[in-house]
Amino acid sequence: MKNCIASLIAVVALGFVAISADAGRIPGPGVNTTICQAKGSVTYFETFRGNELARIAIVGDGSTDLDVFVYDLQGRLIVQGIGLTDREVVSWFPGRTQTYRIVVKNLGNTWNRFSMASN
Fold it and tell me: Which pLDDT tens digit goes with each residue over 77-119?
């Protein structure tokens, strides 16, 4: 039951992110679901258009705290979502079209299945 509820929440939250912005990721909105191991991290590389809203949301299965960090390719932290749950939304306006490193960290002692959506 917990997984069904978490999946439903993920679909609603990620759908909101995908349709709430007109611009962002190249080639377009995307969603990925994977598992982040206990005390581990998952890294993505995504390209976003310059001077257009970039937005990322993560929604986990509720079992641990997940945080999201966005870095430019020079390693500078651009934005972070570090709340106390496994649901985070971050947004920023890239100064130019470029690729970003997105790191999702699991702070818990068990794995967490999560979805990440980008506009």
Answer: 999 999 999 999 999 999 999 999 999 999 999 999 999 999 9
Structure tokens at 19: 């349709």
| CATH number 2.60.120.380 is the correct assignment for the domain at 2-118 | yes
Distances 80 to 1, 4, 6, 15 between C-alpha atoms, Å: 30, 28, 22, 21
Cα dihedral 99, 53, 36, 83 sign: positive
Distance from C-alpha of 21 to C-alpha of 97, rounded to nearest angstrom? 17
**pLDDT attached to residue 74:** 96
DSSP states along 91-117: EE--SSSEEEEEEEEE-SSS-EEEEEE
Q: Give me the phi and psi of 15, to 5 degrees please.
A: -65, -40
Give 14's contacts (C-beta < 8 A, 6+ positions apart). Answer: 31, 57, 59, 115, 117
Q: What's residue 23's pLDDT? A: 66
CA distances, 68 to each of 1, 4, 50 (Å) = 26, 23, 21
Give me the residue spans of the domains in the chain.
2-118
